């Protein structure tokens, strides 16, 4: 929605096709026409299940049916270009585009790596990325690097930016909670956060810790495990549940914690915190490490803890290191304020949604035959 609102509507005519019913249809429908191409059970398949033989056999038929319906929709609408925004959407577009005789662009939000996706799915996705889309829009250099050299010639980087309004009235609430904000999932690391709080909380009396967000897809079991964690049962960590307005809870926090134990493709919530002037502790890998400023200038301040350009970085999957980073951040507010100020400036220069829209339009025009070529791979660096 941020991207659509930022695009120059005079230069592109967009409609949206969704693969399942849900509240997103109403939200998106306030901005542009929305159609539905049902994938049935295939729409809810988790990444961990996608490469299993039984899942493939069960979902090929529904994916093919969705592709044929999408191709018919494209022919009816006179579509010039398809843009896929997920792995499932890419599978459908890869089949629909040749049927409709239109090019397609893959907006890649997933690292195609075995530490993030099943190995078989990685191989299939990399081969598809090389052969099928006209262009690829990666959400970070960390994501682009997982594509392989053969694909580099058709990749552009468009960081998922934030609207300018996020930069208004910056600054954390110094008496607010330490917040972890995002979907509750094993890949996000709420259990690692709870472990870190168990370590740090006794030395930080009076500091509240909050997990904001809920489970989606097949992550209900992980949410239940989190609810049983000693940090939650003893009240050291509060589960706030689903949050409709992430900016409100970010601006009421003193510190944002990103705890993913595996390298993330990007780290949207980190950028949102940076724009809001809130200090960040994040695990140093993948897109999150890239957003923090990389490892070149990082300074070790403890075992598994570094001071990066735009926040503190902790070793992924190491709850002890994460707890130490959180404790350091709380005990050194002036240092964190300086890092947050630098991070906010960097976010303004690098992660604005207007820049995302500019690069996206250049890629779309190139892929549809209207543009002069792709923007450079380092377009937003």
Describe the protein.
The chain has 381 residues and is α/β, with parallel strands linked by helices. It has two domains: 2-161 and 352-367, Glycogen Phosphorylase B (Rossmann fold, 3-Layer(aba) Sandwich), CATH 3.40.50.2000; 165-350, Rossmann fold, CATH 3.40.50.2000. 41% of the residues lie in helices and 14% in strands. It is built from 15 helices and 14 strands. The strands form three sheets. An eight-stranded mixed sheet has the order 9-8-7-10-11-14-13-12, sandwiched between helices. It has a four-stranded parallel sheet with strand order 3-4-5-6, sandwiched between helices. It starts with a helix and ends in a 14-residue tail after the last helix. Mean pLDDT is 90; it is low at 377-381.
Rough shape?
A: globular
Provide the domain count. 2
**CATH structural class of the largest domain:** Alpha Beta
Low-confidence stretches: 377-381
Oligomer: single chain
Task: Name the descriptors.
Rossmann fold; 15 helices; eight-stranded mixed beta sheet; four-stranded parallel beta sheet; alpha/beta; 381 residues; 14 strands
What is the topology?
Layout: H1 2-6, E1 16-18, H2 23-29, E2 34-36, H3 53-77, E3 82-84, H4 87-100, E4 104-108, H5 119-131, E5 135-138, H6 141-144, E6 155-157, E7 178-181, H7 190-200, E8 209-212, H8 220-227, H9 230-233, E9 237-241, H10 246-251, E10 255-258, H11 268-275, E11 280-283, H12 286-292, E12 299-302, E13 305-307, E14 312-314, H13 319-331, H14 333-350, H15 353-367
Parallel strand pairs: 1-2, 3-4, 4-5, 5-6, 7-8, 7-10, 8-9, 10-11, 11-14
Antiparallel strand pairs: 12-13, 13-14
